[in-house]
Design brief:
The chain is mostly helical. The protein contains 8 helices and no strands. The radius of gyration is 18 Å and the shape is globular.
């Protein structure tokens, strides 16, 4: 059993590259997510459970999640996968579809949509990416679950870290206005996104070690 779990130096290096690429790429995309949600908050009807604005907003957020995660991970896959460029479009598609479905839920219950806002994109992001994984892996055990757990965990860390964030802090991040508070907020975002890279990276490194096609 231990031989399947023990990583060698090159595998640790890939895990590091994957985690860093995912974290940096998603962190750079996070201001766009905050921009969408910030303006969506102004355009929503006060007290309504959901409207067209939330549908569009969740869809855009899902697209940004898929694009930012997919871009960094595509770079990390170079040299490890056949046609790694396919990773980006399938990630965009999976994230967008997941965000759209969360948006549909928001038309009925915004609270439920918020709960599903990480898990749902994780499901469809994982399914879409698994199609590419099967081109160079014999099997991709746990990949969808790893995406769900990682995105949900990242959401928990982010919400806890940025609790009670006011409009001024959001604008500082959107405009990248240099300040000590901006530095702290970016560290919180970076830490939450690192969870995504680390969890999915451990799973993928294990898969590449044990199930890579010759």
């Amino acid at each position: 059993m231990s031989k399947y779990m023990r990583f060698r130096k090159k595998e640790w290096l890939f895990l590091l590259r994957w985690t860093v690429a995912t974290t940096v790429s998603f962190t750079l995309g996070s201001p766009f997510i905050l921009t969408v949600m910030f303006f969506a908050g102004f355009s929503m009807d006060g007290g309504s459970l959901g409207n067209l604005t939330t549908l569009i907003s969740f869809t855009l957020v899902g697209l940004i999640i898929g694009a930012s995660i997919g871009f960094g991970q595509t770079l990390a896959l170079i040299g490890q996968a056949k046609q790694p460029i396919l990773w980006l479009p399938v990630s965009v598609f999976g994230g967008t579809l997941g965000g759209f479905l969360v948006g549909l839920v928001s038309l009925t219950s915004f609270e439920l949509a918020f709960i599903l806002s990480a898990a749902m994109p994780g499901i469809f992001l994982g399914i879409a990416q698994k199609i590419v994984l099967m081109k160079f892996l014999k099997k991709a055990t746990g990949w969808i679950i790893a995406n769900i757990i990682s995105l949900t965990s990242a959401q928990v860390v982010l919400v806890a870290g940025l609790a009670n964030m006011g409009a001024d802090r959001i604008l500082n991040i959107i405009n990248f206005k240099l300040s000590f508070r901006l530095f702290i907020d970016l560290i919180i975002i970076f830490a939450s996104v690192a969870v995504i890279g680390l969890i999915t990276g451990i799973n993928l490194t294990w898969l590449l070690k044990n199930f890579k096609k010759e």
